[in-house]
Each structure stands twice: as C-alpha cells, then as structure tokens.
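Hi support team,

I've been running sequence recovery on a batch of backbones for a student project. Most finish fine, but this one hangs at about 90% for roughly twenty minutes before it completes. I'm not sure whether the input is malformed or the queue is just slow. I've pasted the structure tokens below so you can try to reproduce it. Let me know if you need the job ID as well.

Thanks,
M.K.
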C-alpha cells in the first residue's frame, strides 16, 4: 500500500487534513504448557488506517484490501462531511519532523523453539512440576504520512511469559519485553523461566492472609502494573474527561520525592518508536520529577487545549495494529520508566523487619478513578517477610488502596530495573523493585 497516494487521494476528495498509518506485520508466536510445545503460529499482513478531517469533523477508515483503497477513502471523506464537528479535534501535528534513528540491535528470529526450550528448562531446574507460557516475536514496518510528513521505521520486540507450577499447583510467573539483542541473556526467555521457577518453588503451604497495613516489596512485574495505571492517568484525555487522579495537580507533589518517572519511547522495548501516529517526534520526557507532576501526555489537539506543545503521544494504547482515530485524539504512554535507586533488591529485603513481597497482580479495578481509590489481587507469589527473610507463602490477598497514597509512601527503589509486560496489567514498563510502607491489605473475599 502507498501512504503518500492515500494522503493525496483524501485531499483531492475534499479532506482538509489526513493522517495515514501503514503497518506491515510479520509476527511469530510459540505457546507451551505441561513442559512441551502446543502451537506455533506466524502472521503476515499489511493494514492501512486513515483518519480524515473535513471542516472539523473526523472519521476513520481501516483498509486491508489495496484494491478498495480509493473507494473507501472517497466514501470516508463524504461521510465526514455529514458529521458534526469533533470538539476534541484541533488539527494534526503541523511541523516537519526529522526523528532520530532508533538505537538498538534488532533481534533476528525465525524460529522460537530453542528459546522456548530454554524458558521451560530454566524453570524445571527449580523442581517445579509444570511449565506453561508464551513467546511472541513481532516485526513491524511502520509508516505514517500526513499533510506535512512522511515517516517510516522498523520496530521489533520479543515478549516472554512463563508460568511455573509446583507440586501443590501453586504458581510463579515472570514476563518481560526486549528489543535489543544484547538484552537476550539478561532478560530473555531463560531469565523469565528461571524467575518463574524460583517463585513457584517457594510458593508452598499457603497461609491465610492477615489483614492490616504492611510494608510491601513490589516485584517489577507488580510495580509495573502500578506504573501502568500511572501512565494511563497521565493522558491529557483522562485528565480532561475527569477520570485521572492527576487532574488539577500540575506542579504539585503526587509521589514520594524518590520517584522520577519518564515516558521513554527510545528504550529498546515492546513499544519503542521515534514518531507517533500523527507524525510528531516521540521523545523521552520527564512526567514526574522527584515526586512532582511535570507534564501530561499530549497529542497535537490536547496540547493546544492545554496551551503547551505536543509530547508525541498520539498513539493508540491498544497497540500498533489498531486504527488511528483513538490514537490521534487520546494520548497514551509509550514506555513508562522509573529512575532506579542505589541498593539492590537483596539489600532492601534484608532490612525489612516485617512485610510482604508481591510478585504480580491482576484485575486492578477502581472504586473512583478521579480520586484514585482502587483494589487489585496479587498472585503468582505472595510471601511474608520477617527480619529480612521470606518465611512463608500467603494466599487470598487484595490490595485496597488509593493510588496517590501508595505513590507517596514509596520509600526505596532498587538499583535493578527490569522490563516488564503482562496481559494488559503491566504494559511495556521499565521499573525497579519498589518498597512501600503503610499499604492496606485485605482478604480477597
């Protein structure tokens, strides 16, 4: 498909502005369970998404058949003429973009079976009974064309997820995302399998939870879930719609002073990129600095509303294969990254008199998004800590907290920072282990 031709066709049909995104996809998947491979898949496709604006009205078009491109675009422009103005649309990014080249050594993978075996064997060496999981390798050629820019680049990444089960059927899980080949040994499938095996091997003889307020040491996969919620709440759309706990808090203290957060699309990970869906440059930006809220995430339109410049976050939060309209109107984070601390996790653990270690969580839900009241259910390894040592495994826990209260009570971050990603709960984060005090723990009734 031809992005320039699509832009020209839309303008000739009467569009005032147009943004076109083409994704050429070549993806590999390997799924495994019961210590063996289940299925291997490969997908190749090319999709085009077009957003046209006519006198302030907007509509989106998805195109998979090149022979129907002209017909669909002309019909889309005609349809946009009949729509009311979109009050949230104030134009596309209108400057010439010259993004820097992504600095990473791409993974070259055409067969995931050896990596899958490494993941399984690394977990089994810890004496677990069953290992399951998935490896997903994505290669995408991404092109964005607008009235002002024509941009293209190659993006690729590997997501590795392993869940191991001990003889009691209790699990341990780990999941990472990498894009640079140098990270394969540090954070690839063998690392993930090893970590899942360690957690499962320790997750035995579950004790009933004791309710109360505890010191909690969050694993990066679990803390990554918290920071994923932070990233979503930083979207200017969430702020404007009244669904963000950061609303009205610009330049205020929203977290512990040890917390500095970046949205960094240039780190080699599963959601890296150098330009967004409307052609704006995607740069690393500080959103929280030493606990103080510094910036929301913006598209060109939301930035104009707030009287600031675009932060290059016009991107669909559901990934590169989804259509443009949501991405250009609803800013989303690229890759949330937290500045690490000075001590390693083992040193932090050794100083905990009484607390809980949490490996993972899921089903994070809000009672009130605007205030940040939420609950979430930890899983895949919950361990009671006494005098610097893990002494027993717990089950049936729920965290019932307020997001701002939790962020302000983070007392230390580890020197290790691990890329984490899992099933929509933790999206493309780079975060350390985090120690928080006064965390409310209840039973998962």
């Amino acid at each position: 498909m031809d992005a320039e031709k699509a832009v020209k066709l839309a303008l000739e049909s009467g569009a005032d502005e147009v943004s076109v995104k083409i994704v050429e996809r070549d993806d590999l998947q390997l799924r495994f369970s019961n210590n063996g491979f289940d299925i291997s898949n490969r997908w190749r496709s090319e999709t085009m998404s077009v957003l046209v604006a006519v006198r302030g009205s907007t509509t989106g078009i998805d195109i998979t058949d090149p022979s129907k491109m002209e017909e669909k675009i002309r019909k889309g422009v005609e349809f946009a003429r009949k729509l009311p103005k979109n009050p949230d649309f104030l134009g596309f990014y209108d400057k010439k973009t010259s993004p820097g080249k992504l600095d990473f050594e791409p993974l070259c993978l055409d067969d995931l079976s050896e990596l899958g075996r490494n993941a399984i064997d690394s977990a089994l060496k810890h004496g677990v009974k069953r290992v399951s999981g998935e490896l997903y390798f994505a290669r995408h050629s991404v092109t964005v064309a607008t009235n002002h820019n024509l941009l293209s680049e190659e993006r690729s990444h590997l997501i590795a997820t392993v869940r191991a089960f001990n003889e009691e059927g209790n699990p341990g899980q780990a999941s990472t995302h990498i894009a640079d080949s140098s990270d394969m040994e540090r954070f690839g499938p063998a690392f993930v399998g090893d970590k899942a095996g360690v957690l499962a091997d320790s997750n035995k003889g579950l004790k009933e939870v004791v309710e109360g307020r505890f010191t909690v040491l969050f694993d990066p996969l679990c803390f990554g879930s918290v920071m994923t919620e932070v990233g979503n709440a930083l979207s200017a759309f969430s702020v404007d719609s009244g669904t963000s706990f950061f609303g009205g808090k610009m330049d205020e203290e929203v977290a512990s002073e040890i917390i500095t957060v970046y949205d960094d699309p240039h780190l080699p990970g599963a959601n890296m990129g150098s330009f967004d869906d409307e052609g704006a440059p995607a740069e690393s930006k500080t959103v929280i600095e030493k606990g103080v809220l510094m910036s929301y995430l913006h598209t060109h339109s939301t930035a104009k509303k707030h009287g600031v410049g675009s932060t290059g976050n016009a991107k669909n939060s559901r990934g590169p294969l989804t259509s443009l309209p949501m991405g250009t109107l609803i800013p989303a984070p690229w890759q949330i990254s937290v500045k690490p601390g000075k001590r390693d996790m083992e040193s932090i653990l050794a100083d905990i008199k009484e607390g809980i270690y949490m490996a993972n969580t899921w089903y994070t839900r809000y009672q009130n998004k605007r205030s940040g009241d939420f609950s979430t259910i930890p899983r895949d390894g919950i361990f009671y800590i006494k005098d610097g040592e893990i002494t027993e495994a717990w089950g049936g826990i729920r965290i019932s907290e307020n997001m701002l209260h939790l962020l302000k009570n983070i007392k230390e971050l580890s020197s290790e920072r691990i890329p984490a990603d899992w099933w929509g709960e933790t999206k493309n984060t780079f975060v350390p282990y985090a120690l928080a005090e006064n965390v409310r723990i209840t039973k998962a009734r």
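--
Follow-up from support: It reproduced on our side and the slowdown came from queue contention, not your input. The chain has a mean pLDDT of 95. No action needed from you.
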